[in-house]
Design a protein that fits this description.
- Pfam families: DNA_gyraseB, HATPase_c, Toprim.
- Its EC number is 5.6.2.2.
- Keywords: ATP-binding, DNA-binding, Isomerase, Magnesium, Metal-binding, Nucleotide-binding, Topoisomerase.
- Its cofactor is Mg(2+).
- Helices cover about 35% and strands about 20% of the residues.
- The chain is of the alpha+beta class and about 650 residues long.
- The chain folds into three domains: about 200 residues, 2-Layer Sandwich (Heat Shock Protein 90); about 150 residues, Ribosomal Protein S5, domain 2 (2-Layer Sandwich); about 180 residues, Rossmann fold.
- Strands 1, 2, 3, 4, 5, 6, 7, 8 and 9 form a nine-stranded mixed sheet that branches.
- Helix 4 packs antiparallel against helix 6 and helix 8 runs antiparallel to helix 9.
- It is globular and about 70 Å long.
Length: about 650
């Protein structure tokens, strides 16, 4: 038997002066990018790192706007060369410290709360992370008739013009900052920008900053009514009563109720930052809203979930030095409006008390004045209560059934890391929804058991376009699916960041995709709206010889691969089950191709579902016949 200390002594011998490594600021960011921007990604997901880089630069421009300097921001995204350019017309980075401001950690004006009272980027890391994670980064500041330009590559300074005189072209403002960057493909891989994701961020900046003129790729974005515009542009269905708008001090909210929504839904922001995971400000509003409404109707017995179900709310609060739960700032952790003093005391109001007091004054007063709204709201609450009680028994039985099934659930092969945890890799958590045992078997054998789960469907799921909640709870397969996701009571407990539909690229596979999307859009539209649902793209062809193998996702890729491969052997994959686990591993790793399911703000979800998945068989048949394309299949010889 080995001596008990032998291993540790050998390890100690290897631990010496050479083991101590110093990383420069930019090197550390490049080595540990997840600490600064969450995850890398290829641009398929709205929270991939390339969009965080854009956000970090825009945040600085917005901080200038909210401080009263510069009312315009210009941005271009070149989708071909993947270069992003952002120009603000604020005060401009102080020229003497410009290089340090974009390349040295713990350097920046946002540590001085007198300069930036209610900023998003209080840690002063944002632009430095953009610099470090870009293959090319250029910054130019304009101040007092002078300018300075610096260029970097992989975070290393390559040129510096020094401070020189600047004569602006006629009609252009003389101050501000211009930042250009190209995210480094060595880190982000073969990434691409999705225009809808960028536009959504631009609109949110405009909604939160009324009076800001934002020009993105020469298109003007502007919001006159702020949060009211946000709700009107994004709300599905007609509001049950006119939008209620409350604004006092650093708090603003606009909200109403709609039918057909499983829970309450929020567009929440802190200092202009979209807190997609909510936080203490959202919890304060949810609790305060239910309390004020119950007190107004003098109905203590109302359940909070009945008061809130169907509520759609845009919420914004501005606080000093906010504390977020991650560098990506998607969830607020602050409990007070201002930070603790250096002596540990804190006389700043509790966030919860602050929000409740505002709602007590404004919402209660509004409901007393607008009796029609009060009646419509009461009717909605009572209908919510009736629906909840009607399906309570079914829901209880369904939960008990799913709980028993989950103990030995052959449909779900779970992973260890989930989205609703605090694990550093939580954003990678993914569930693949597959058809049949063969496809799920290949994915199960090749998946990353830490972050990737597999849910296997048996045949085609129920068409829920005309179903009620009771039918969904009674359907074993759909009941097991939404329990696996844990979204029955809202998005707070969602277990997987990425919900990936992995079906064959044939007629049956397409039908299953539509049935699953119908289910999500009917009962959990927020899952799609928040960008969690994707379609997995798997190769249709394999072109190979003894020297190399190429997987092709389209006919064009197949033809290109054949041209580049002498004496090729060509295989057509008819289904996912035909792809071996060893091959499949390369299709669901960090380079996997995902097509996000996107909802445009003018998309008529319910109308589209009724047309394509409803009972209008004759209308649909006529549409298909008018738009049918017949293509001859090309014979592929091995």
């Amino acid at each position: 038997m080995d001596e008990p200390n032998t291993l540790s002594l050998n390890q100690a011998a290897d631990y010496n002066d050479d083991s101590i490594i110093h990383l420069e600021d930019m090197e550390h960011i490049r080595l540990r990018p997840g600490m600064y921007i969450g995850k890398l990604g290829d641009g398929s997901s709205h929270d991939d790192g390339i969009y965080v880089l854009i956000k970090e630069v825009i945040d600085n421009a917005i901080d200038e706007f909210t401080s009263g300097f510069g009312r315009r921001i210009d941005m271009t995204v070149n989708f071909a060369d993947r270069c992003v350019s952002i120009r603000d017309y604020g005060r401009g980075i102080p020229l003497g410290k410009m290089v340090e401001a974009v390349s040295k950690l713990n350097t920046g004006a946002k540590y001085d709360s007198k300069v930036f009272q209610k900023s998003v980027g209080l840690n002063g890391v944002g632009t430095k992370a953009v610099n470090a994670l870009s293959s090319r980064f250029r910054v130019q500041a304009f101040r007092d008739g002078k300018t300075r330009t610096a260029e970097f590559a992989d975070g290393r300074l390559t040129s510096d013009s020094g401070i020189v005189a600047y004569a602006p072209p006629d009609g252009l403002e003389t101050t501000g900052t211009l930042v250009e960057f190209v995210p480094d493909p060595k880190l982000f891989g073969n990434y691409h920008f999705i225009n809808e994701y960028v536009e959504r961020r631009v609109w949110n900046y405009c909604y939160l900053n009324r009076g800001l003129a934002f020009y993105y790729n020469d298109k003007r974005f502007y919001s006159k009514n702020g949060l009211l515009d946000l709700l009107e542009h994004n709300m599905e269905g007609e509001p049950l009563y006119p939008l209620i708008h409350i604004k006092e001090g650093d708090f603003e909210a606009a909200f109403t109720h709609v039918n057909g929504q499983n829970s309450d839904y929020y567009y929440s922001f802190v200092n202009g930052q979209h807190t997609t995971e909510g936080g203490t400000h959202q919890s304060a509003f949810r609790e305060g809203y239910a309390r004020v409404v119950k007190e107004f109707y003098n109905k203590k017995e109302f359940a909070p979930e009945d008061v809130r179900q169907g509520l759609v709310c845009a919420l914004c609060i501005r606080i000093q030095e906010p504390v977020f739960e991650a560098q990506t700032k998607t969830k607020l952790g602050s409990t007070h409006l201002a930070p603790n003093r250096q002596d540990g005391s804190n006389d700043s109001p509790f966030l919860k008390t602050y929000v409740l007091d505002i709602l007590k004054r404004h919402l209660d007063n509004y409901l007393h004045i607008h009796s029609d709204t009060a009646e419509a709201l009461l009717d909605k609450i009572q209908r919510n209560e009736k629906e909840r009680k009607d399906i309570a028994g079914i829901k209880k039985l369904a939960k008990e059934s799913s709980r028993k099934a989950s103990l030995n659930n052959s449909k779900l092969r779970d992973c260890r890391i989930h989205y609703n945890s605090n694990h550093p890799r939580r954003l990678e958590s993914t569930i693949f929804i597959t058809e049949g045992l063969s496809a799920s078997g290949s994915i199960t054998k090749s998946r990353d058991v830490e972050t990737q789960a597999v849910f296997s469907l048996r045949g085609k799921p129920l068409n829920t376009v005309s179903s009620g909640k009771a039918e969904v709870y009674k359907n074993e397969e759909l009941n097991l699916l939404h329990n696996a996701l844990d979204i029955d009571d809202g998005m707070e407990n969602l277990r997987y960041n990425n919900v990936v539909i992995a079906t064959d690229a044939d007629v049956d596979g397409m039908h299953i995709r539509l049935l699953l999307l119908t289910f999500f859009l009917r009962f959990y539209p927020e899952l799609v709206r928040e960008g969690h649902v994707y379609i997995l793209q798997t190769p249709l062809f394999r072109v190979r010889n003894k020297q190399k193998t190429t997987y092709c996702y389209s006919d064009d890729e197949r033809l290109a691969a054949i041209a580049a491969t002498p004496n090729p052997e060509i295989t057509r994959f008819k289904g996912l089950g035909e792809i071996s686990p060893d091959e499949f591993k390369g299709f669901i790793d960090s380079d996997m191709r995902l097509d996000p399911v996107l909802l445009h703000k003018d998309f008529d979800t319910q109308g589209v579902l009724r047309f394509y998945m409803g009972q209008n068989t004759s209308d649909r048949r006529e549409f298909i016949m008018q738009n049918l394309r017949v293509e001859e299949d090309e014979v592929i010889k091995n």
